[in-house]
Design brief:
The complex is a heterotetramer.
Chain A (H helix, E strand, L loop, with lengths): L1 H40 L4
Chain C lengths: L11 H21 L12 H29 L2 H33 L7 H22 L3 H27 L13 H45 L5 H5 L1
Helix pairs in contact in C: 1-6, 2-3, 2-5, 2-6, 3-4, 3-6, 4-5
Chain D lengths: L5 E12 L2 E12 L3 E5 L6 H9 L6 E6 L2 E3 L13 H10 E4 L11 H11 L5 H11 L15 H13 L5 E4 L8 H16 L3 E6 L2 H7 L2 E6 L2 E6 L14 H5 L1
Parallel strand pairs in D: 3-8, 3-9, 6-7, 7-8
Antiparallel strand pairs in D: 1-2, 1-4, 4-5, 9-10
Classes of the chains: A mainly alpha, B mainly alpha, C mainly alpha, D alpha/beta.
């Protein structure tokens, strides 16, 4: 019983870690997009 | 006809270079010797299943010492930008692959002679009681390892620190050859020449054909910038 | 390959559908499917194990084919496909080994045995890992793509041989054990649910890689159009 | 100038490394027997341009014809169907490429290096050719030396001989003048002039405007990935106010 539960927990933990990584990557992309937008609006010459 | 002479001169050039500079073979043979020695030392006292262990160790020693040499054949071309010049000659990539394959095959064959000899001396296993069978296994295993090693070595030409990477990248690809060759070697030691032995042999043949063909067809695709 | 093709990824309904399917599949696996006689509860690992094992193989096929397409067309879009497949496939492959190992402990009393399927999946995992390491270790994008694609393609050629070689060692891995219809249905539902779920992850990652590439291009353009210090003064 | 067929014709060639465009829509025409010099700063893409022309590097977009025959994206490539093995060999036999490095095998003697090149290109009487070339570059006495015993200038001569041994009609040279003393430069300039008289088309890169003026019919500048002609008349090059040339002349 316990072995089976542990397996499921670890399994979903691993999947969750990957999803979290995807999420943080997404946030970083959005930050870059914002930075790019502000840069394009106010170009320092 | 031109292709054949080109092939001959490419192989000859590599062998002559190696003979003069001795950059690869001594290091490779030394490594093979040391590894064989260490492996055999650990075998001392093992009574049961010796043949199985020796079968694997022989091929591991050959693999690790050999893969370094395979990387060197391409790294050598890189030295004075000779690789670019070689690609500009009217010669197809397939022939370059075949030439490098031949050089690597000869290199590995030398290593095999040394390693097999050392294992006979050090580990006291009747490896050479069936010389013809052992020769067949050694040849086919050599072709299998060399075809994979040459392909990946060519992909890695530009990379200076590639040899360590190459060793662990090739291993999963070459694993079937190592498995089959080890099993076949075990059967040679145990003097079992039955259908199982033929099965492993045929597997080695299939693997060699597949990867040599892959090399001839794909090499052009893989080395291009 | 185009961004518009991937609009479906962000569709809410799809996410909900997959989530619902997964919950149903897991519920079936954990509660509804009957307990197996000899192994007890641990047998329920089978449902996720088979699903990820299948996905691990599929992922490799996708990676290999995309690598081939990259090598033929030298289009970085294919490399992104192959990278996304590589990452998700590696995850599935790792999970296969993990769940399989626990299964083996429960069923055969050992964490690992040199069974053909186990050996095959270990080598599959090794190939995935090498490709993943390789992707990260080379800076120049096209060279990295070329070398990784070569390895993935050769791996794809190698895989049938690996399966062939390991098969000849006598194995104990069950191929198609007898199961009750409910168990069969549960397994099927799990396989479908996980396939959809990981495909969704794959597509999301793919879109991320595409966005990343687009951003990189735009950032570079912005740099060229609005260089803060004049480039000529800095460069000499 | 545009007599007969063009030796090289290139339209709209684009090449990017790492998503950074190195060549942007490069157009180039070189007539038979013409010599052009390509100038540009370090990293301007001169080497890449030559490597594209020679077919070592695969380019992203654009077309290239050598002597009116189309060349596919990569010289090694034969899968596009337009080139089979034989014609690939033919076009390679027509190109000589002398790279920035000397491209000599360090463990083969000078004679063996030239012999290898001769045999790879399928020349008849390779030994005679190799010796003739050694004679021509003044290193006949050193035929059995290994390249490392020579100075850079002498190695450069051998590498030029290696690239020319199969008598190509189109010649690409990457910075052939760099690292040479005055005497060797003069020797090379004379050689180029003689090749031009033999109706060879030459395309070389250089940093030094004087070499460009001396040896080229036309001087082109590669800047920001765009190729521009900066002086058609070699004599007027000194007055050119092109940013690539002007500062060097003042300094």
């Amino acid at each position: 019983m316990s072995l089976f539960v542990i397996t499921y927990v670890v399994f979903w933990l691993a999947v969750a870690l990957y999803v979290i990584r995807l999420g943080s990557q997404q946030r970083r992309l959005q930050d870059r997009l914002l930075a790019l937008q502000s840069q394009l609006q106010m170009p320092e010459r | 006809m031109l292709m054949v002479t080109q092939f001959y001169w490419m192989v000859r050039k590599d062998l002559v270079s190696e003979y003069r500079a001795r950059q690869v073979w001594p290091a490779m043979l030394m490594l093979g010797t040391l590894v064989s020695f260490l492996f055999s030392a650990q075998l001392d006292g093992v009574v049961e299943g010796r043949s199985r262990i020796v079968g694997m160790l022989v091929w591991l020693a050959i693999y690790f010492a050999g893969i370094l040499a395979m990387h060197r054949t391409f790294a050598m071309e890189q030295e004075d930008d000779c690789w670019d010049a070689l690609r500009l000659y009217p010669v197809t990539a397939s022939w370059i692959y075949l030439a490098k394959f031949t050089v690597n095959f000869l290199t590995l064959a030398t290593l095999q002679v040394v390693v097999l000899g050392l294992f006979v001396v050090f580990s006291n296993v009747p490896l050479l009681d069936h010389p013809l069978r052992m020769l067949t296994v050694a040849l086919l295993g050599n072709v299998g390892l060399t075809s994979v090693g040459t392909l990946l070595g060519g992909v890695w030409t530009e990379n200076r620190q590639g040899s360590t990477m190459l060793a662990f990248l090739t291993l999963p690809l070459a694993a079937p050859v190592l498995l089959a060759a080890s099993e076949a070697t075990r059967l040679v030691i145990d003097q079992e020449g039955g259908p199982l032995w033929w099965r492993w042999l045929s597997f080695l043949v299939v693997f060699s054909i597949v990867f040599v063909t892959a090399g001839i067809v794909l090499f052009e695709l893989l080395i291009e910038d | 390959m185009q961004r518009s093709d991937l609009k479906i990824v962000s569709a809410r309904w799809l996410t909900w559908l997959v989530t619902g399917l997964l919950v149903a599949a897991l519920g079936m696996a954990m509660r509804v499917a009957p307990m197996e006689q000899s192994m007890g509860q641990v047998q329920r690992i089978l449902y996720i194990h088979v699903s990820v094992a299948w996905l691990g193989l599929m992922g490799f096929a996708v990676m290999g084919v995309c690598a081939m397409l990259y090598l033929l067309h030298r289009n970085m879009a294919w490399n992104r496909w192959s990278q996304a497949a590589n990452e998700v496939g590696w995850l599935c492959s790792s999970l296969t080994l993990f769940t399989g190992s626990i299964w083996a402990h429960a069923a055969w009393g050992t964490w690992w045995t040199w069974d053909p399927r186990l050996t095959t999946s270990l080598l599959l995992w090794a190939l995935y890992s090498s490709c993943l390491i390789l992707r990260g270790s080379i800076q120049e994008s096209h060279r990295s793509a070329r070398i990784t694609s070569s390895l993935a393609l050769l791996g794809l050629i190698d895989l049938p041989l690996v399966i062939m070689a390991t098969r000849w060692f006598r194995g104990i891995h069950p191929t198609s054990p007898e199961m009750e219809p409910v168990m069969h249905f549960t397994l099927l539902l799990n396989v479908i649910g996980f396939t959809l779920f990981f495909s969704l992850l794959f597509l999301r990652r793919l879109r991320q890689l595409q966005t990343d590439n687009l951003l990189r291009k735009l950032e570079l353009e912005a740099l060229v159009n609005h260089p803060y210090p004049p480039l000529s003064a800095a460069g000499g | 100038m545009m007599t007969g067929n063009d030796a090289i014709r290139m339209t709209g060639l684009c090449k990017a490394f790492h998503d950074i465009p190195v060549l942007r829509h490069v157009h180039l025409r070189v007539a038979v027997g013409e010599s052009i010099a390509v100038m540009g700063e370090n990293g301007a893409g001169k080497t890449t341009l030559l490597r594209c022309l020679a077919g070592i590097v695969r380019w992203d977009r654009g077309q290239l014809w050598l002597h009116g025959k189309p060349v596919t994206r990569s010289g090694m490539s034969s899968r596009d169907g337009s080139r089979d093995g034989a014609s690939h060999a033919e076009s390679c036999r027509d190109i000589g490429m002398i790279s920035h490095a000397c491209q000599l095998y360090p463990n083969l003697s000078l004679c063996e290096n030239l012999l290898f090149a001769a045999r790879m290109t399928g020349l008849p009487h390779p030994r005679k050719q190799a010796h003739a070339w050694l004679e021509r570059i003044g290193l006949a006495g050193q035929a059995q030396w290994l390249p490392r015993r020579l100075s850079h200038g002498m190695r450069r001569r051998v590498s030029i001989a290696r690239g020319l041994i199969h008598q190509p009609s189109i010649l690409f040279m990457d910075e052939p003048f760099s690292g040479l003393d005055r005497q060797s430069r003069q020797w090379l300039a004379d050689l180029l002039a003689r090749l031009q008289r033999q109706q060879k088309s030459i395309c070389f890169t250089t940093h030094d405007p004087r070499n460009a003026d001396q040896c080229a019919d036309r001087v082109l500048a590669l800047q920001n990935g765009v190729l521009r002609e900066i002086a058609t008349d070699p004599n007027s090059a000194h007055e050119a106010s092109h940013p690539l040339i002007a500062p060097r002349l003042i300094a």
